Amino acid sequence: MNNHFGKLLRFEQNNNEVKVVFEKQAAYFTVVREDIIRVMVPFFQEHSVSKAIEKNPVVETSYSVLQDEDGLVIATDRIKVQIADDFAVDFYKSDGGILAADYRGERTIVKKVSWETVEMLEAEGHDVSGLKEEEIQFQIVKQLDEGDDFYGLGDKSGFLNKKYYEYENWNSDLPQAHNEDFKALYKSVPILMCLKKNAAYGIFFDNTFRSSINLGKENPKYYYYTAKGGNLDYYFMAGDDLQDIVRSYTYLTGTTPLPQLWTLGYQQSRWGYENTEDINYVVDTYRKEQIPLDVIHFDIDYMEHCKVFTWDEANYGKKGELFASLRERGVKPVTIIDPGTKLEEGYFMHDEGVANDYFVKDAGGNVYVNVVWPGDSNYPDFGRKEVRDWWAEKHRMLVDMGVGGIWNDMNEPASFNGELPQDVVFYDEDRKTNHAEMHNVYGHLMSKAAYEGLKGLTGKRPFVITRACYAGSQKYTTVWTGDNQSLWHHLQMVIPQLCNLGMSGFAFCGTDVGGFGADCTPELLCRWVEAACFSPLFRNHSAKGTRTQEPWRFGKEVTDINRKYIKLRYQFIPYIYDLLYQGETTGLPVMRPLVLHYSYDPEVRNLNSEYLVGEHLLVAPVLEQGVTKRVVYLPEGVWYDYWTGERIEGKQYILKDAPIDVCPMYIKAGSIIPTYEAVQYVGEKPYNKLRLLITPKEGSYIHFQDNGEDYAYKNGAYNLYRFTTSAEGQLNTEILHEGYSVYQNITTVMIGK
Ligand code: GLC
Predict the structure, then answer these.
(1) Which of 93, 375, 642, 720 is at 20 to 30 A from 186, Cα to Cα?
(2) Among the atoms of ligand 1, which is closest to the Cα of residue 300?
């Protein structure tokens, strides 16, 4: 409730929009769909143009509006919102059950941004003047009901269930080991999902200013959201379970598009491959060791003095030669591109940027300077289309050389010389604004530029990876979770972090396998490659100065275990690809927490150590040093041990032997899972044979096949198969759509009896 609204006076209806007029302020309620309502109060500007929602999501929906002495009720067939004096807003299911009511009790503490955060940022030299309480624009305080659990919120550190924690949305590049008490990491994805005892809802807070969300930490009776600026602008989604919310959220902000097939292959990176010899040694050793490899990443070392869109010929040879020779070996190069553009007269990016006014400026009108890898640098103003177009076109040099994808980093934006002041002038297209508003969408806009550049220049599905982004960036880019470390607790964080990113729209995501900072141990690398074997982005990356981290650096056993799991990954590529194909329509991710499919099984609401790949495969990796037995929870149904074929009844905990080379995996009864032969890289041999893993019980499965590269499938150049199996494992194949060369051979392998 909010006293700067006053009494509810009247309403005006205009198609799907209901303008509710209070004594001191008007609020807009839009019926987006029968299960989604947008609430908007124009504290900042009359119309907000969302960065996350780019297509008008509003569809014609029948709904009613009634006003009586208690206020106003807007109702669709799925959702009811009751609005009263002082902007009290309560959401109900259509059957009257409460979803989210405003908290009407007393606030015990009125703390807006935690002092720990302010102190920490201040100690690091950031400008904290903008974090004062009086600058909070508004807050929303909702009742926390018994049994409510929270998920989503993008890449936040910690556990799967976000209840009782506090987070901030302010893209942050923090070098310390990410712990569960971190308020913010690199991404701001303000989608909060609440799973109640018998229903689910989501709230997408579409606001790019610094905001914070306190999920019962201040007081277990309520949770609140507050922002430092912008409009109060949120979408309330009602559903029966979390899947409904993921579908609705990605209906609004877009789904992850189908990537190129090879991007699902294994990838190697290191900050510190210093020349052609380093790169060749790594690639050739992968081939020699017969460990599959599809991608090699080029970190900042490949540029001349870290100047973006340059190439260091002294150390990496003539432009294009190394890339061509990598491609001959089946390896696609991906290059890093940071936004910070070196301040150096005579450097074309600098000169063009200054001459055309493409860089952000300080409040006094001078081109703003801060320090990143190249030293003094300027920041392109990606909020303007002309700047994005300029940047996009600059990728031509790398594309001409044969680059396979672009890795966008440092785009929070990072700055070594203290945070950019809030008043640095940025533009949102033609509108002059500032860092406070554009910070959280800087990475989003940069990766959108890279996506558009690659798409236009290659005609293929762009492979862009970004560190910083905002809600909706999944339409343009893959994400990785930034600078983790070679620590067991960071391995433990892989599952909750990627599962929450997946539910927050980012179906294509991954962490640095083996850990970026600190020194990996042989055992940790084995357990990491096992745990991340099904993470969509599968890349080993490490930092300069740390122990080298390619598999063979740790001896034969580690090499063998890496080979085993990387080959396993290659076998499952068609399954992961199918999940991404389906996800393009449904928004459902590849890596899923069990709570997404078994929302009302209380055992899985806090299950941090297992995940599902699609619906059929359950992975329960060992995540602790020295442990060789694992307690595994299997939800309802019958499951088959992938390694032994043992039949196990679900809804129970089991103890599984898991020596260093075993990652416990289970396939549900009635599954059909497509696999390919493990190759050394995607494209080594034509994928003309399909092998279906099946488990007892009748099953049905849709499989997609195309050229794995471009947009031809949008024009019909694909095959869609429907496989059905009988209880005895008899396969029936139907081709639902034929537009590509069909498999020569489809076989089945039964797991379990
Ligand atoms: C950042 C990135 C890391 C990269 C390094 C050097 O720390 O997160 O992945 O290796 O910069 O470019």
Answers:
(1) 375
(2) 12
* pLDDT band per the 50, 70, 90 thresholds, residue 269: very high
Kindly report, residue by residue over 318-342, the tens digit of the pLDDT: 999 999 999 999 999 999 999 999 9
380, amino acid identity: P
CA of residue 608 relative to chain centroid, distance: 17
CB of 467 closer than 6 A to ligand 1? yes
Q: Which residues contact 318 (CB under 8 A, 6 or more apart)?
A: none
Which atom of ligand 1 is least distant from the CA of 483?
8
CA–centroid distance, residue 671 to ligand 1 (Å): 40
Specify the fold of 672-750.
Immunoglobulin-like (2.60.40)
pLDDT bin (cut points 50, 70, 90) of residue 123 is confident
Binding site membership of 483 for ligand 1 (Cβ less than 6 Å): yes
pLDDT on residue 111:
47
Q: Is any ligand 1 atom within 6 A of the Cβ of residue 491?
A: no
The reply to whether 591-668 and 672-750 are identical in fold is yes
CA of 409 to the centre of ligand 1 (A): 7
For residues 356 and 385, give the distance between their C-alpha atoms in angstroms, rounded to a whole number. Answer: 13
Q: What residue has token string 């559903």?
A: 239
CA–CA distance from 626 to each of 179, 488, 547, 596 (Å)? 22, 11, 21, 30
Q: In angstroms, what is the span from residue 531 Cα to ligand 1's centroid?
A: 22
Report the CATH architecture of 2-102+104-143+200-239: Sandwich (2.60)
Angle between helix 242-253 and helix 488-503 axes, rounded to 10 deg: 70
Domain extents in the chain: 2-102+104-143+200-239, 261-582, 591-668, 672-750
Which fold, 261-582? TIM Barrel (3.20.20)
The rounded Å distance from CA 494 to ligand 1 centre is 18
Tokens of 277: 């010899």
Q: What mean pLDDT is reported for the chain?
A: 96
**Could you tell me if the CB of 437 is within 6 A of ligand 1?**
no
CATH fold, domain 591-668, is Immunoglobulin-like (2.60.40)
